[in-house]
């Protein structure tokens, strides 16, 4: 068996607040899992499900057991990067909804347009789009596979 990533988890001091934030910024849906301080995250159409293969993964949201990360502190964990149509628009939405800048949008030729923000609980989340700031699509520029 390969070692594919199949699930991610976010941790939050106030899970309901973070569910609301990501619902507005990324259109994710959250559902409480029983009576636990845990919510499932449905990231959208095309994600892997228990009954279907997919191109993306879903996750979970758990109540944080300790203090949130401090602003300016080094990352202590994994950063999830979410594929979006418009990295600049989603980044702006994150800031408008109470997130903070981690790294402003920038182009990485041959890769895409990237941006990183801190959510209201201090977690860093990345965004990537296939379209660069000049309107070119990195998929159209990709060299043919051998």
TrEMBL record:
Superkingdom in the source lineage: Bacteria
Domain (VOC) ranges: 4-130
The protein's name in its UniProt record: Glyoxalase
Species of provenance: Agrococcus terreus
Lineage, highest ranks first: Bacteria, Bacillati, Actinomycetota, Actinomycetes, Micrococcales
